[in-house]
Amino acid sequence: MLSDLNYNLYALVLITSGAFAFLLAAWIMRKRRQVFNWFSIMLIAAAWWAVAYGFELSSTSMENMLFWIKFEYLGIACLPSLWLIFCYSFIGRDNRLNNLTFFSLFAYSAVTYLMMLTNEGHHLFYESTSVDYSGPFPLLSIDPGPWYHLHTIVFYSLVVAGYWALIAHLRHTKPVFRKQNRLLILSTLVPLSVNFGYIFLDLRPYGHLDLTPFAFLLTSFIIAVGLMRFGLFDVTPMARTRVIQELSDGVAVVDSHGRLIDFNGAFEEIMKPREDLFGKRLTECFPAKDMDQAFPDLGEENLQGHILHLNDGRIYEVSSTILYEKTGLFNGSAVLIKDVTQRIESQHKLEDKTKQLTELNALKDRLFGIIAHDLRGPLINLQETLNLVNSDVISTEERDEILKILGENVEQSVSLMKNLLDWAQSQQKGERLELSLFHVESLVREAVEPLQSLLKRKQQVLELDVSSQLEVYADRERIKIVLRNLVNNSIKFTPVQGKIRVWTEQVQDDVWFFVRDNGVGMSESQLEKLNKEMELESTYGTQNEKGSGLGLMLCRDFLRQHGSKWEVESEMGFGSTFSFSLSALPKDSHPADSDLYKYQ
Predict the structure, then answer these.
(1) Dmax of the chain from CA atoms?
(2) 87-108 pLDDT, tens digit each
(3) 435 neighbors 587 (Cβ within 8 angstroms)
(4) Tens digits of per-residue pLDDT, 149-205?
(5) Residue 29 contacts residue 47 (beta carbons within 8 Å)
(6) CATH number where 155 lies
(7) How far lies 304's CA from each of 197, 308, 338, in Å?
(8) What pLDDT was estimated at residue 235?
(9) Mean pLDDT of the 352-368 span
(10) What is the value of pTM for the model shown?
């Protein structure tokens, strides 16, 4: 067959261009994506038609022409089906083409091809064929049959359906994709228009020459330019819909002037726009009035992990990647906006918990130190003194003096033990304030009663000026511990024959408690630690009474649980005044009614 061919210019153009189309299809298929595969198969079908038609144009006999036309229809019969599948795949709607649709499309193509192969037995495709020698080279002349006309109707129906889908999608396509959509539509209109003229308008050079394969090859060249110049198919609408649009993070593309040219649904959800966002700057999408800092200027640099705080409590992490033209010119930026509100809040909570655990560990170590030293020491002294007394090696006067000192040590140890037990009780899981309404006077007297022996030993005067009518709404036992420790602290740091005064005052709905002494007072650094709730150091009293700092720490924490805190005034050499307030009436919104004021 090939030896009987008489090549002409038309045939050589078709054969060489068809070969190029085969190579182009193979190159496109290397991208290994569904939309590329369907386009490549469609291009192979068009190239097959073109090459076979080139051999038909080179034939000089009826037998050769009919032989090659059977090869042509292997591509022609499949082209409309492949075109429709490609269009739906390109716009991301191939899920609408189910198995039945695929079967129907290719069953039609197979039946059409079989009708062509068996035409000599039924003449439903071509009623008659002949060779026209009037032109510059022999051309096959055909008289179409019924199936040929049916094939033409189906061919154009499928082609129009594909165009309809593309054009409908173009109306809703973001501007960044419209260039490639228009290029695809316009380029494929060329062979369709030529074929329409061939069939319906009788536009046929030399009476029978079909220019449709030439037009298909021209389209191939246009698309090849689009692939190399515009990156056609590099980012298809399907890829955008299935990847970018489904991201839970906001994605936006801005041009070199910082204007929005594309974004996904998540970005739109973040912005909650009242008007169209296209063409706006990101700084307009994030107004300064909605943020506690300005939106970062993207410029021509990548942005990584910039945290953006909105006034409504939302927190976003903004990152951007620079986009360049193939020439190296700055073309814009791709911006990723992630909602990290929950992550940042969890991170802050974790940091707070870590800080609390660190403080509790330090407190635990300190308490163990108190138990090991301040509590263990007096107990060992007690044991040794008792052994000494029982040994009868000391006089009665020496024994009385030792017992006096021992009694003081035991009192200090008992006070320390009480504070340790109170602190341990406050740490119990689920421990809450037991709120009640009670008289202040009886509470104050109960708090200072255990301290009478200490006052007598140091010959100090304790003055109580508390109204019998005042009541407060609080945890009675904890406030008693607070008062006991504050008065005990005053006794410790007030010299012999010193004076301590405790009084109360009502100010509107609050009752204020005051504990004042004329003791040694506190330095500025000690006051700063008290006011800033820093760790309290143990110091010795005016008669070398040993302290641990645990009593004042309990006072501070118990007051905080009540939604109160102390106020301290002190001057070195002139004494100190501690004061705090409590509610005189029960309140629905009392801070102790929630878990918030459990021991932190």
Answers:
(1) 154
(2) 887 776 766 778 888 899 999 9
(3) no
(4) 898 889 888 888 888 887 877 666 655 556 666 776 777 777 777 777 777 777 777
(5) no
(6) 1.20.1070
(7) 57, 12, 12
(8) 45
(9) 76
(10) 0.45
Q: Whole-angstrom Cα distance, residue 477 to residue 425?
A: 12
Tell me phi and psi for residue 179, to 5 degrees: -60, -45
Structural domain contains residue 400: no
Choosing from 342, 362, 396, the residue where a domain stops is: 342
* pLDDT score, position 502: 95
Q: Are residues 172 and 223 in the same domain?
A: yes
Structure tokens at 39: 């386009």
**Among 438, 520, 447, CA closest to 471:** 438
The residue that leads in pLDDT, 381 or 185, is 185
φ and ψ at residue 273, rounded to 5 degrees: -70, 150
Tokens read off for 213: 């394969």
- With tokens 């504070």, the residue in question is 419
Q: Is residue 376 part of a domain?
A: no
In degrees to the nearest 10, what's the CA dihedral of 468, 471, 474, 477? 20
- Please write the tens of the pLDDT for every residue from 517-529: 999 998 888 888 7
- Provide, rounded to the nearest whole percent, the portion of the chain with pLDDT above 70: 76
Residue range 438-474, pLDDT digits in tens: 999 999 999 998 888 888 889 999 999 998 889 999 9
DSSP state of 310: B
Tell me, yes or no, whether 300 and 209 share the same domain.
no
Contact (CB, 8 A) for 277 and 260: yes
Q: What is the pLDDT of residue 565?
A: 81
pLDDT at 592: 44
Indicate whether 183 belongs to any domain: yes
In which band, very low, low, confident or very high, does the pLDDT at 232 lie, cut at 50, 70 and 90? low
Considering only CA atoms, give the Rg of the chain. Answer: 48
Beta bridge partners of 575: 571
Distance CA 180, CA 184 (A): 6
pLDDT of residue 302: 78
Last residue of a domain, one of 222, 239, 256: 239
Q: State phi, psi for 567 to the nearest 5 degrees.
A: -120, 135
Provide DSSP, 31-65: T--HHHHHHHHHHHHHHHHHHHHHHHHT--SHHHH
Structure token pair of residue 70: 């059977």
Host domain of residue 301: 247-342
pLDDT attached to residue 229: 57
Same domain, 140 and 273: no
pLDDT, greater one: 113 or 404? 113
Assign 72 to helix, strand or coil: helix
Which has the higher per-residue pLDDT, 296 or 400?
400
State the CATH number of the domain containing residue 554.
3.30.565.10
- H-type helices in 235-375, by residue range? 237-239, 265-271, 282-285, 341-369
Q: How many helices (H) and strands (E) does the chain have?
A: 20, 14
**Cα 542 to Cα 78: distance, rounded to the nearest angstrom:** 107
DSSP symbol at 494: S
Q: Characterize the bridge pairing of strands 250-255 and 260-263.
A: antiparallel
Query: Do 313 and 445 lie in a common domain?
Result: no
Whole-number Å distance between alpha carbons of 56 and 72? 9
Residue 215 CA to its chain's centroid (Å): 51
The amino acid at residue 430 is G
Judgement on whether residues 112 and 23 belong to the same structural domain of the protein: yes
Q: Is 300 helix (H, G, I), strand (E, B) or coil?
A: coil
Same-domain check for residues 184 and 313: no
Answer yes or no: are the C-beta atoms of 112 and 73 closer than 8 Å.
yes
Q: Strands 330-339, 435-439: parallel, antiparallel or unpaired by DSSP?
A: unpaired
